[in-house]
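User: Teach me something about this protein's shape.
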Amino acid sequence: MRERMRFVLDYEEGLFEMRELAMQYGISRKTAYKWLERWEAEGVEGMGDRPPVAARVANRTEAELEGWFVEQRRCHESWGPKKLLVGSRINPPEVSHADSRCGGAEIPDSEVWLAGAT
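Assistant: First, the predicted structure itself:
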């Protein structure tokens, strides 16, 4: 955070061009502009680290359906993703890790099934 603050102060002094500042701080120009945008929009709070996690997952399995898979997996421990697809309405790649997100047993890699695999 201190480095980012120094960067902003150096930029506001106007002694260096953006590319020179970016080179001095060992960052890309894209990152330099991002830091400035955050400074202008949020002030000091915008200079902190941010988690590298997406705010939302676009293709996340619905909670109700995820619960159904977890329940079926617990009742039928020998069933893998292929069998769990029967009666479900989601795409195959989403099945392979649905119950591990709910605290259930991790599906072994040997059972992970992706579309097109035999």
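Now, about its shape. Residues 66 and 101 are 9 Å apart (CA to CA). Residues 63-111 form one domain. If you'd like, I can walk through any region in more detail.
User: That's plenty for now, thanks!
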